[in-house]
Specification:
- Helix content is 24%, strand content 24%.
- The chain is globular, with a radius of gyration of 13 Å.
- The protein is α/β, with parallel strands linked by helices.
- It starts with a strand and ends in a 12-residue tail after the last strand.
Length: 90
């Protein structure tokens, strides 16, 4: 079972979740600092874990906030996802 946590439970996170599904991740959960959020689509939302070494994609669309999130969470292992239908032109 391939598991992945997506940090940021909002619109950009929905796109990243779909890519993760297409790549075969079977256990996907969101992390979000907003404690009022409990679920996005069919995915559970948890609060940030300050000491866990887990596989994470930061799924926040704003570049500055994404950079700050990575800087504040150095204990995570960060993943890279490439959409299976992506291509790079000449």
């Amino acid at each position: 079972m391939k598991s992945l946590y997506l940090y940021g439970a909002s619109g950009h996170g929905k796109v990243i979740a779909e890519i993760a599904e297409d790549l075969g991740f079977t256990h996907i959960s969101f992390i979000d600092a907003d404690s009022s959020k409990k679920q996005l689509l069919d995915y559970k939302i948890i609060q940030p874990a300050k000491s866990q070494n887990i596989n994470v994609i930061v799924s926040i669309g704003n570049n500055a906030i994404r950079k700050k999130t990575v800087g504040d969470n150095k204990y995570f292992s960060y993943e890279t996802l490439l959409h299976p239908k992506s291509s790079i032109s000449k």
